[in-house]
Amino acid sequence: MKVTFWGTRGSMAKAGPTTVRYGGNTSCVEVRSASGTLLVLDCGTGLHGLGARIAASGAPVRGHILIGHTHWDHIQGFPFFGPLFDPRNEWDVYAPRGFGSSLRDSLAGQMHHRYFPVGLEALGATIRYHDLLEGHFQVGDLTVHAQYLNHTSLTLGYRIEGDGVSIVYACDHEPHACAHASGHEELTGEDLNHVDFLRGADLVIHDAQYTPEEYAKKIGWGHATAEYAIAACKQAGARRLALTHHDPARTDDDLDRVLEGLRPLVAASGVDVFPAAEGTTIVLGPTENPHRRAAENDSLADVRSGLFDHEILVVSAAAETIELFTRLASDDTLPARFALTAEEARARIAEKRPTLVVLDQALLGDDLLEVAGAIRTATRADQTAILALAGGPLPHGEEVDESIARPFSKEYARARLRAWLLRTTCRWLTAPTPADEPQRLETLRSLAILDTEFDPRFDRLTRLAAETFRVPIALVSLVDTNRQWFKACVGLDVRETSREVAFCSHAILSNDVLVIPDALHDPRFADNPLVTGAPHIRFYAGCPLRVGSSSPIGTLCLIDTRPRTLSTTQLELLRSLADLVERELVVGTATP
Fold this sequence. Notes:
This protein is of the alpha/beta class and about 600 residues long. It folds into 3 domains: about 1-285, Metallo-beta-lactamase, Chain A, CATH 3.60.15.10; about 305-425, Response regulator (Rossmann fold), CATH 3.40.50; about 435-590, Beta-Lactamase, CATH 3.30.450. About 30% of the residues lie in helices and about 25% in strands. The relative contact order is 0.08. Residues about 300-310 have low confidence and may be disordered.
C-alpha cells in the first residue's frame, strides 16, 4: 500500500520560503492499495497538487474521498480538485453526519456565489455523498473503520485495513485528559478508546500541532501534542508515527527544533517517529498483525430511528450551565430537561429515559459516581450515555462515559454532545452485499417466483413452522435487489419490505441459521425500524435457502415480539423445514 502526503499543515495554508521542506498546504493524504483502490484523506489545499497529478495521467478515475470534518483547512481544496470536473470520473465522498445539514450542503456552502465563481452543480464527475457515523464500511478491497475524535466539531478518524497492513488517520484530535498532553504518563480513561483505535497500526498519521507549553494555553481548541501522539502509539503498539497538522506559525527550522527535543521520548517509545512532509511517499508491505479490528457497526447506517425524539437530561444548579445546554439543545432542535438535585433527576428518569445525561460535579461533588450508578440501574445502560462536567479530578469509576473538564467552549461541548447522541441512537447495520450478488439474483429470477400468488405448498410449511416454534410470525422471504418479498407469510399483512431493513439480508450472508435472541440488545438491529416500530421484532431466526451454488436467495424465518432462544434440537428442526422449502423451490415453483 502506498501513502503519499500532499498537505501536512494545520489550520491554514502557509506557503513561502520557511515552509519548503515540510510543506505549507493543509491536510491531504493519498492512499493507494496494491489493486489500485484510491482513497484521499481530507481535502485541504494539498488536494490541488494531487488533482493535477491525477489529471496528467489522462485516464478516467474511480476514487473515494474521506473527510475528517468540514472545517476550512480540511475542505478548502475541494473546489480546486480538477478530477471532480471531469465527467469520465466517479467519486464517493464521505464525512461525519452533521445535525441539520448534509455533507453535500456543507461542501456547496463554500462554493456559494458569494465566495466562489461556480457552484457545486458545475462539477461534471459522478459524485455520491455519504454521511457517516462511527463504524465500518467497505471501499473496494479496503475496510475503513470510523471513530469519533475529540475535537470542537464532529470529527472522524479513519482506520484503513487492506493489503495486510493498517493505517490510522487521526486529525484533528485533542487529549481527553490535559495531563496526557505531556506524554510522560500512561493514558487512561477516555484516551484508552483512542489507544484501542491505534492498536497495532503499521502507520499512524496523527495531529501534533502543539508543544505541551502551547497546548496549556489552547486547551479545548481540538489539537494534540507530539508527546501525546507518541505516548498513544507506544501504548497501542503501533509501528510508525507520522506527525502532521503542523502549526502554521512554525517554520521548517522551528519544526526541526521541536523534533530534536522529542528524541529521548521517541527512543524510549520504540516507535518509528517522523514528521510528515509534502511529497513523501511511504510503501507499506504486509505484516503479521494480530490487531485487525472486527467490523461491529455499519458507518453508513441511516439515522431513521428518530434521533430527534430523544432528549438530554442536565443535572445542574448553575445558571450558566443551564443556559448553555438550553442553547445547545435549541440549536439542534433537541428537547432538554433539567434537574436541580439528584432526587429530581431520578424522578425525571423514571418518567422517560433520556438518551444522554449530563452530571455537574459542582452540584453532585463526590456523590457524582453514585448518582451515575443509580442512573445506570434505572435505565438500559447500553442506550444512555452519561457525561460529567468536571471542575477537578473525578473519582475513578466506570459509571461515567466521558468527562468534560472546565473551562470548555460552547463549540467543544456541542461536539461532545453530538458525538454521544449519535453513538447511542444509531445502532442499525445495513447488511453488505454478497460477493456473488449478480449470480445470486440470476438464480432467484430463474425460478420465476417473484410476485406470484400465494402457494399452498409454501403456506403449509410456513404455518407448520409458526405452530411448531410457537411464534406469531413465520415467513418464506426471498431477497431481491432492493426488497425482501414474501412467498408465504403468517402473522403479517404485507408482502414485502425494504431490503435495507430486512433481517434476512443478514441471514443470506451465511450458510447456517442466524439467531438474534433479543434485537434490542444487538447493535446491528436495536434501532432498526422493524424493531422500534411494527412488527416490533425482538427475536429472529432465519435459515438460509440455497438453490444451486450461489449465495442463498432467501430464508425461512421465525419472528417473535419477545426475546427467546432456540435449542440445538430446535435449530436442527428449523434446518429440516428449510430443506423442505428448498425442495419446493426447485421441484415446481411455477406450477402450484
